[in-house]
Amino acid sequence: MTQDLNTARANVYEELEKSLANIEHLDVAKIESVAGNFAIALHEGVFIATPMPYPELGDNDVVRLVCSPLPLEAAALARRIGEKIAAIFQSDDKVLTYVNTQASMHITLFHTSHPDASQPFSEEIRANEITHLHQLASTTKKFELNIHSVVIASSGTVLMLFDDPSNSIQTLRYQAKAAFGEHLRHPSHIVHSTLSRILSTQIPTDRLLQAQAHCHQLTQELRGQVLDTNIKYNSYILFLLEQTDGSSCLSFLNLPPSTHMSVQIADLPVIDLAKYMANREQGGDQCRVVAECLYKYGVLVVRDPRATEDDNNTFVDMMERYFEQTDFKQDARPEYSYQVGVTPEHLERARNHCNRAETLDEAHRPVTLCPPELDKKSRFFWRTGPRPPKTQFTELNAEPVIPKAFPEWENTMDMWGNKMLAAVHELVEMAAIGLRLEKDAFQKRMTYGPHLLAPTGSNFNKYGNLNDVLAGYHYDLNLLTIHGKSRFRGLYIWLRNGEKALVRVPDGCLLVQAGKQIEYLT
Question: Matching InterPro entries, A to Z (predicted)?
Fold first, then answer.
């Protein structure tokens, strides 16, 4: 069977590589059909293509795609290739192209509802599909791929094709076919990632020949290369792409991780900022580790010699004394939406993530009630870093609140806040380098930002019972969140593979979590 599969895949790849043997074989109808899924707009004198929802879906139809994201290095490589080939055509302003983002580079495993034959959606269908996918994930071993070739097909699509030496993906597809039955499209032999697309039919011959030659050159350079990180079906958040009522959204499906792949905070590498700051020119490997941790897990552990355990204890000592004596009124600023000063209990509420939580394996579900109740925690917001000379956002840049009973307050808050901010400044530079961006890509966007030192108060005298939730299941809206070591357990985070992990910060270290802003920016 393995030999038959390899032969079938080789035949498909050969057909793809020959599909554009000359420009007369350009599939104009296919290119026009694909281009119909993109909105074209003029921006600063340049036409920009943006993907749209599938136009032919009925009101109740849903497209559902199960895939595995490419590892960071492979995704970055795929993005660079897509950009280079697109640039060949972009030198002619009449040719429109689209390059997939680095974050969206993926291997399509299978569709449970395909755009060409979409299936109506219901919560019952979703529940059944999730059950099947859980079962598949529990029996699927890790798999690695070798790069076979880079091709530009007659459809104008630039593809990276992969060999699957152990046929793990094909086996998974056949298992999925058996599980989903008639609702699953017949499994394809191709294993690929789509890098970019040509969206114009009038293409200069010399540009097309140049692009083909570049694909051949890349194939010679890359063929047989093993992806730097094995793609592990269980270790990534797989997702369903659902499009209903003419809109599109990404619904994350978190499959249970295998026991041998369980990741805890203690397993993560510790990023040593002293080592990086001492020799930035030789820090490339560390920068890639920072990017990889954020990409794979959404969290990393850092050691910064400027932020010591003694500094953390000074800060925590003062905050414990403050929360024991405050009346939560005198230092509150409701007129500024509590963006400075103290925030009392029962004022903040996490967004409703009940649908997402329900897809998690039972062992990894949050304790948060559905719908979420008001948080039992209290907080204090202290602005850190320079304020903008002018601002339209008064509540984000209001004057600080200094509790009267604490003469050391301002110095202690600034000490710890500035050290946290300094660590983040180094980390975002490392992350940018690791993601192959300009090294100040994040730093320059942080200038005059409303950075907050926001310690959380947890009153265990009132809320000390099993399953008391002080802060509901949520994601952060900011760029990065950085924590010092706490004196009490109870903080859980969810890694990108959907696994719930108890936070245990090593002594002398800091914990950093990715927020929505870095997700949007990358």
Answer: IPNS-like_sf
pLDDT for 3-40, tens place per residue? Answer: 666 777 888 888 887 776 655 667 888 888 888 777 77
CA atoms 159, 160, 164, 168: torsion sign: negative
Say how far apart CA 2 and CA 163 lie, in whole Å.
12
On whether the 265-521 domain is CATH 2.60.120.330, my answer is yes
How is residue 258 written in tokens?
A: 């295998």
Buried b (16+ CB within 10 A) or exposed e, 240-249: bbbbbeeeee
Write out the two tokens for 195: 């890098």
Amino acid at 430: M
Residue reference for tokens 């304790």: 367
Domain positions in the chain are: 1-254, 265-521
Q: So what's the architecture of 1-254 in CATH? A: Alpha-Beta Complex (3.90)
Higher-pLDDT residue of 471, 142: 471
Please give the Cα distance from 154 to 466 (Å, whole number). Answer: 61
Number of residues that make up the chain? 522
- Which two tokens mark 176? 């999925």
C-alpha to C-alpha distance for 92 and 88, rounded to whole angstroms: 8
Whether the Cβ atoms of residue 504 and residue 266 lie closer than 8 Å to each other:
yes
- Under 8 Å CB-to-CB from 104, ≥6 apart: which residues? none
For 31-66, write each residue's pLDDT tens digit.
Answer: 888 887 777 765 555 566 776 655 555 555 666 777
